[in-house]
Amino acid sequence: MSNLDRPAGFQIWDKLIRATLYAVPAAPTINIYHNDIVIHGGAHLVTARGGPLAIIEDGAVPDGNPGILGSVLAIFDEDMDPVKRIVAAEAGDAVVAGYVLVADSPDQLFVAQDNGTIALASGGMNANLVSVALCAGNATTGISTQEINATGVLHSAALQLKLVRPHPLDTPATANCRYIVQINEHYYGDTTAGIA
After folding, report:
1. Domain C-terminal end among 103, 122, 147
2. What pLDDT digit, counting tens, does each position of 107-144 carry?
3. What are residue 122's phi and psi, to 5 degrees?
4. What contacts 143, CB < 8 A, 6 or more positions away?
């Protein structure tokens, strides 16, 4: 049986452990969608709506980068009104383009589709995520199209995601299988990512 090819970013699996509000600096280079994996921007901004907030990295897609926070649960504009997405170059209030609520516990599990075929023997190994250029997503639904990168699945500490297990309703070792994953290279996690 084949799996559906329907990428939807990184959705919460099981239960939400923790969520934190982060700022998106004005005029980001990348787009921000629901279920996007985001990384810490390494700084804070004094914002009009949330006070001093940590920022997410807005200048590069998170593919292959450490310092991952988690997945975007909700997106708000500069006035804290819910929106589908934040587009690249959004000016907002000239300080922030908007705000994102991120599932940011190092213990959080997510479910995401792979972008190829991952061998059944690769269970428990590590992988990177992959984004379409500028973190594209579905403009109508506001949902991410990020996926698990099926290329280069290894026992390596330098990869972003731990493949916990295939989704129970999908057929493993076939294209577009969804996997339950945990973040290895988490900003708030251990200094050693995954297993070598």
Report:
1. 103
2. 999 999 999 999 888 878 999 999 988 888 999 999 99
3. -85, 0
4. 8, 9, 33, 34, 35, 137
Same domain, 40 and 79: yes
* Structural domain harbouring 121: 107-183
| Residue 82 token pair | 């819910």
Number of folded domains that form the chain = 2
Q: In this structure, are 179 and 137 located in the same domain?
A: yes
Q: Cα–Cα distance between 7 and 16 in angstroms, integer?
A: 21
- Report residue 91 as tokens: 């000016």
Distance CA 176, CA 172 (A): 9
Does 54 lie in the same domain as 112?
Answer: no
* Structure tokens, 21: 């509000």
Q: Tokens for 16? A: 């939400």
Domain end call among 51, 68, 103: 103
Cα–Cα distance for residue pair 114/103, rounded to 1 Å: 20
pTM of the complete model = 0.93
Considering the domain architecture, whether residues 95 and 114 belong to the same structural domain is answered as: no
pLDDT, tens digit (0-9, with 9 covering 90-100), for 143-165: 999 999 999 888 877 899 999 99
* CB neighbour class for 14 (10 Å; exposed up to 12, middle 13-18, buried from 19): exposed
